[in-house]
## 1
Amino acid sequence: MAEETNQLRIRLVTPERTMFEHAATAVELPAKNGYFEVLYGHAPLVAELGAGDVIVHCGADIADGSTAGASRYNVSWGFVEVLPDRVTILASDALKPEEIDVPRAEQQLDRGQKMWKEAGESEDAYTDALRVISEAEAKIASAHEKA
Amino acid sequence: MANVLDLRRRIRSVKNTRQITKAMKMVSAAKLRRAQERALQARPYAKMITSVLESLTRRIDIFDETTGNLKHPLFVTRPEKRILLIIVSGDKGFAGAFNANILKAAFQFITGNTDKQIDIEAVGRKGRDMMRRRYPVAVYTEQTDDQGVARQVRDRKAPVEVTGDHPGMLLKLEQGRVHELAESVIARYVHEEIDAVYIVYNEFKSVISQRLVVERLLPLMKIGIPQITGAVEPTTEERERAAEAALSAGIEIEAVDTAEADDEAKKFGTANVDYIYEQPAEELFAGLLPQYVFSMLYHAMTESVAAEHAARMTAMDSATNNASDMIDSLTLHMNRVRQAAITKEIIEIVSGAAAL
């Protein structure tokens, strides 16, 4: 019964509501500087999240490499606290892939690229533009992944 | 003296009004229930942000060695010369004294700070309309500096000006718009356009526990402790009225017990272990602070929305009761008039018969 006890409790919280609360075997997280995966017994960690997908693995799908038992959420910006048996994700915005509005995300991408072109010398403007672009790209990618 | 027909018409019209106020009360009760729910659901996030920030502030490397203050522009205190006042009012009327009370508190704040420059950011249509009537709107002109970069230059004409308004923000509370507001407030504070940010709103824990508060949002002093600078508690009478209205609409009077969930949320990021910080602590801290300001704003707005619906529900309940009273007294009056008419006719007949 080792598998039963070695479960992580995953919680995904947004400003509006608690999106998801479930036991899982592993979770993939989009940190600001790249994806990382957390398994049971991970060292305590606090990280800032970027835009990307949180993938929660609930069963034996890790062994065979499929994503059948996994659920995916698109999150943009937030924070995560990892404890050995608990992962709490604080996301500014979280969507299920089927909730993503692709045309709107594409518009957002266009807007981001326009911001990038008009940023000029200002470093802040580039950072802002980059945020918009990466958020839009993550949304589009996650919508395509599902389809 | 009015005749029976006139009185009957009046009774009918009052009955119609009662029907409307009753319907409005029920609608407000339903909306209040939803608003309370939303305020409740927003709690875990706010609590978690607060607790992780608190735990981060305990780490020594965030502090400035020379001054002992936190190293972040939002913690910098300057003499308060320019103040931003955010007024959270309702979008619609018919809510008793709800909007009037908020505006009264806002005007009190403004008249109490006449020596300072005040910018007003109005959330909610009622507040905006009032502020716009009283104070001029800020004027920005575009100027090009010597490097050829165009920038907005503020041309201040009056000590109190309205810099922005957000009508309809509360009708459908979306976090995107609140985010924009929070970002603009932070940007203005960081660029030293303003020295302090205050917010006037109606705090709402439950139907019987609510008050009007003036809270200082920025500069931040200590994480997790709201800086309330002024509060107006409702009178006992008002509270009883609200409780009565809530009872008749089937609304829970006491606040829902969330102690367990709150405790759970408080643990976020504060476990007694040595965390690995993926990013440097300062960076995490700087990333979290805007979220904290956002969650404070969002919290104020969700509570204000709930309070507005509660106020409307109470007002409409009173109106319904008053209409019932009026119908009773009009019916009594009508019966009297009818009786008088009948008596008069009988007397006429009797005295006519006696004269024969």
Note: Residues 116 and 129 of chain A are 5 Å apart (CA to CA).
## 2
Amino acid sequence: MGRYLIRRLLQAIPVLLGATLLIYAVVFALPGDPIASMSGEKRMDPDIVGILRDQYHLNDPFIVQYWHYISGVFQGDFGRTFAGVEVSEIIASKFQVTLNLAFTALVMEAVIGVGLGLYAALRRGRAQDTLVLASTLVLISIPTLVTGFVLQLLLGVKLKQSTGIEIFPVAGVSDGLRSYLLPAFVLAGTSIAYLARLTRTNLAETLRADYIRTAVAKGLPRRRVIGRHALRNALIPLVTYLGADLGTLMGGAVITETIFNLPGIGQELFRSVYERQQPVVVGIVTLLVLVYILANLIVDLLYAVLDPRIRYE
Amino acid sequence: MRVFKGAKIIAGAALLSLGLAACGSGTSTGDAGGADQPVRMRIGEPQKLFYPSDTVESEGAEVLASIFAPLVKYDEDKKPVEFVAESIKTNDNRVWTIKIKSKFTWHNGEKLIAQNYVDAWNYAANQENAQSTNYFFARVRGYDALNPGEGKTPSTDKMSGLRALDEETFQVTLKQPFSQFLTMLGYSAFYPLPKAAFDDNGKVTEAYAKKPIGQGMFQIDKPYNKGTDQTINLTQYEGFPLDKPKFKKLQFKVYNSAETAWNDLQAGNIDIQEQLPPSAISAAKAELGDRYIDQEDASIGYLGFPLVASDVYDDPRIRRAISMAIDRKTITETVFSGTRAPADDFINPLLPGYRPGACQACVYDPEGAKKLYEEANGPRTLQLGSNMDNGHKEWIEAVANNLRSNLGVTVELDQVEKFQEILDRLEAKQYTGMFRSGWLIDYPSAENYLTPVFSTGAIKTGANYAGYSNTDFDRLLAKGDSAASLEEGLKYYQQADDLLLRDLPMIPIFYYRMNAAFSEHVRGVRINLLNQVEWASVEKVA
């Protein structure tokens, strides 16, 4: 197990390095001079542009620029934006917000999604089951943009206007966990629905397996049959889904972050690509690659926990 | 019970998440009823730290305008009137003597002196400092010595045309007479800087740019961490000698989305929002009553012709016909929901010098356009280039449809992400079609709609992207610049404008409008012609 873990972590190093080079090259290849476009649609004095390009080493060949960047990274210097702000500072603060959002969303997925699936599976074919299936289908088919604005208007604006009490803040992160509830639900919406359906199907299938019939025949209590025998087996695909989803939640939250004005990684990435801020883009994307790698690793390790037959040596 | 280990991990994560969330800044933003609650205004994220001479975008300028006070402000007739300046005198429009009021102090208690202006302007004009407002000082004598060009080092760090006469008076000598110089002085590039802003090498420090010390109505509470801070908090400066606002605290809140800010305004979490999203206009009009502001804005949107890059559009009849084929009224009403107004002059209606209906080719006339276009034997295929950000995609498509149906031509759209790409490709002659463009004035004078966009000198350094060059036009501008007064200058500028209206190197399509709203917690919100709130007139409603 220990050796397996070390091997996996060592494998991550070339992947991360490769990612930085690739992303750096992609941003480099985008058209539009970052300095000249800083003044919006007005043309900056060409001499001033030249002087600034020199200051930021933008006149060097690609590989020299990349070397400047990556050698800085190894010394713990992640570079500065064109506005002179430390990239590490920006990422640290934005990552915090995204982490809060993603984990709140993940918890919602796990609790609501699995809960609904469990509920539906145990009442298969009945009205409650149909209701869960229908409502999750609706949730899947509405885009985040719509759920985001509709819920913000109804639960944020209208609820406060009619009651005078603020339950769900409209935007921002100044109200602690409360700020994240609505955006996390919007972000997790589709996944909740998928997860509910996945749980329902898996559990329903497992419940028909021979070993479950044996367990019931042995006279085990229903709670133990479902909780210990059926659910545990049905959890494996769910854990896979949740693990892969963590990366999506962190990197793909641009729309949700914008609607609810959460200063997170998604928005920052969007803006940085637009402004051609290479160090920021590379920093964020590399971090996301790292999150994917770690999430996958944790998922693999969880397999061993859930299924004793799986062993890593 | 191993299955529940997973549950524990998840629960742990949830706790972690809660803990992290609780670490966020703790200020609650409830109702603004309390006396200590600030007046809250939406801004977008400032592009840079607060270097006054390096701020050319509206968000940073809005914050700076609350921290600094300008030499002149503009009155109801859009004429400059002294504010920090006691008097501004000139005999020949070339040598300007500026005396400042004696009672102004910096937020650190030091007295505001004439040398503060001299220091700040020399700093801004020096190419070594690469300040984006550098070009504002190009009319001052001695500017060239500070700007020998890339790769060369300036021989001095002072402009010869700028000197302090005594503690309260300084003198600016221009290269050429410029009748509009007074109107420039209200802009943020001309703010002074205190001694404390500079380090030993004469550079403005980063610490200063994070927590600027100004001489305006408000002082900033703590250093601004760009990229991290979502609010900028300010407190009224007790030592401000002129009309003070009737509230103590001001807060700027950063929102990237105008739609979100509008929702938060309705929920009572912000008090003032400039630039409402088009989707909010009808609701704002219907529900807010006099808390909705719809006024003129100084920006113009154009369609430009590549006069340098191509000879397809050389016949002015083609340009005129294209202009006549565009239904400006319908586009501004439907595509923009009234957040734009149809353009009918190169000078914006906000400013003296505008003549309604001056642009006869801006009148929608599909039949006349088609006839003229065929007479001039216009090209059968037109290219139309635009950037798609900032809501430009939709109106460009509407224009393309107008041209297709009214002129019977094929229109190829060439859409790129950013305007800079169009410029780069025009310059390299890789793109030779029509293109969208726009202009926001730097200072409120009719002259600023002409010189930087259409003069021959602006081809290389300004916004003359069409490449229009007309010696008669340049001569009229020079006459206006050296005229004895603002009013007399205006006559020449209007004559220059007439030449543009005849030649149409670009065609004006629309004027922007300022659509703003404010909450019921404040009253007396007025927005000036630089699109900045006049804080002195704002009051909180208990």
Note: The longest helix of chain A spans residues 87-122.
